Amino acid sequence: MLTFGEQFSVSCNKVDAHMAKLMQRDRPAPPNIPMMYPVLKGRLLETRGFLENVQPDEIAGAQSHTYELTPPIVRGWFGGDDYIRHLVLPDFFFHISIAHAILRHLGAKIGKRDYLGNLTQQSGGDYS
């Protein structure tokens, strides 16, 4: 199993790689960063900034494209919806949940609410 820092770093790298694929761009080289808190926090802010700057037209139609996957996960071609639903989201949440579990195992006082973030009734739609 990867360490907390490695799980965290892999999560950010996966965001970059999957978004590049969805945007039909070359995958950026993952940065080689030390696994220390200030650097990891900077990496998180960098990844967040990248996502905030993605323009809708850069991923328009991504769900209708076809994507090639190669080992170690699986070899084959997948439609965009399947790629996003069955690989991108589970892959990201796997690494985030493992990092969360490692922190809890190490004694961090974090729980489900910390994992879910600021979830409120306003987060959903109006179903009345």
UniProtKB/TrEMBL annotation:
Pfam family, one: DUF1993
Gene3D superfamilies on file: dinb family like domain
SUPFAM superfamilies noted in UniProt: DinB/YfiT-like putative metalloenzymes
Superkingdom: Bacteria
Protein name, as recorded: DUF1993 domain-containing protein
Taxonomic lineage of the native organism: Bacteria, Pseudomonadati, Pseudomonadota, Alphaproteobacteria, Hyphomicrobiales
